[in-house]
Design a protein that fits this description.
This protein is an alpha+beta fold. It has helices spanning 17-25, 49-58, 63-75, 90-103, 112-115; strands at 2-5, 8-11, 15-16, 35-36, 41-42, 126-128, 133-135, 149-152, 155-162, 172-174, 179-180, 189-196, 199-204, 216-221. A hairpin with a 4-residue loop joins β4 and β5 (41-42). It is elongated and about 65 Å long.
Length: 222
């Protein structure tokens, strides 16, 4: 099985899953043609990799075997394929194959180290409440909000988080007791009403592991 360890994500102690995911979603590489939910890609020119490997995974095919299949396809695409041979090579090809083997056809989300790959740094992006309405959407991919900072005036406030992501999220506020919205799936909106005094608060997603993965921001009420 693939594992996340040390300062990088590795497969069998050799492949770097972080590098593999970065290469997979990079411009002109795999993600532009292939759909892979965990990588946040939706290409349609090549096979949907989740569909391609779901049955094999459920039938007990080992990830090492999937990795080998992907590595072979990278090196020697089918004659009818638009993919160029050796689009990535050497250790990079190994890393991409390992990431696809780790992620394809597997429900859920990448662990925090991998989930942050390819996600825009929104920690310094600011939004401001319009009257008593504060909207802080979840990022479409990865564990993040679209805004890492927000401001509002003291008093009554409705905090809302539309969720465009394929994984469930919510928005909550601490110190504890300030408010929390329900966990919602893609297309839903998590919201709550609260009354705040001047000060600084932390908004976060309370789904286990999401705050630790980077889904957190600072609300200044003044």
């Amino acid at each position: 099985m693939l594992a996340v360890s040390g300062c990088g994500a590795t497969s069998g102690g050799s492949a770097d899953l972080v590098n593999g995911k970065e290469l997979f979603i990079g411009d002109g590489t795999c993600g532009s043609c292939h759909a892979l939910e965990r990588a946040g890609t939706a290409g349609t020119q090549g096979p949907d990799l989740d569909e391609a490997f779901l049955n094999a995974r459920e039938s007990g095919m080992k990830e090492s075997v999937i990795e080998g299949v992907v590595a072979e396809q990278i090196a020697h695409p089918r004659n009818s394929s638009i993919m160029k041979p050796d689009l990535v090579t050497g250790d990079d090809a190994r890393d991409v194959a390992a990431y696809v083997a780790f992620a394809a056809g597997k429900p859920g989300e990448d662990p925090p180290l991998l989930a942050s790959v390819g996600v825009e740094d929104t920690s310094n992006k600011m939004t401001t409440a319009e009257g008593t309405q504060l909207e802080i959407p979840a990022a479409a991919a990865g564990l993040a909000f679209e805004f890492g900072k927000a401001t509002a005036k003291p008093g009554k406030l409705t905090v809302a988080m539309p969720n465009p992501a394929s994984i469930p999220h919510n928005i909550a506020l601490k110190p504890p007791g300030e408010g929390a919205g329900p966990v919602v799936n893609q297309g839903g909106t998590s919201s709550f009403d609260t009354t705040l005094k001047a000060g600084k608060y932390t908004y976060f997603c309370s789904v286990p592991g999401h705050e630790e993965g980077g889904m957190v921001g600072e609300l200044t009420v003044k």
